[in-house]
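Mods, move this if it's the wrong board.
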Amino acid sequence: MPKISAPTVAQHRVRQRDALLHAATELLVSGGVSSVTPAAVGAAAGLARPSVYQYFSSGADILAAVVEDAFPRANESLRVALDAAVGPAAKLDAYVRETLRLAAEGAHRPAAALAAAQLPDECLARLRELHREQAAPLLDALQTLGVPELQLTARLLGGVIEAAMGAIEHGASLAVVTDLTLALVRAAVEVVTTGVH
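Not the wrong board. Structure tokens:
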């Protein structure tokens, strides 16, 4: 019987699967979808390829698991930040702050790599669904604030936030980018809701 590295077999399997997902995410970010193969993921995690098949049936299965793994922690962080904010303006600020903080931690790198990849249709559909779930608090806050053309306004502000995330990921100061982004988002919301320039 193989040696386990946890108090129970179930915990050992969770650790092994987590190690495989971590390795797959690193390979995805550094080398793209084509680098996520059972052999490469197993090697990066220190496991033989046959061991990988105890957890995943194929490279596509690994990618599907990475899709599912890429969002829950970030979404939970967003939920906690938003739950602490009172009112739509504060929730909008919290959404921007937490999204940029997560970008500084590298939490969006797997999702960005997945979005740029040639994924199987079912993975793409799930990725879009998870993105919608992540953007829902932004839409809710903007709707409550009464912005016109809700979807278009959200996409435009989302573009500002994405540009800010990119700046942070390329070395810009989190504090500086956050302050500028909040100023831009607040000013844009005020202009579109009041018409005051």
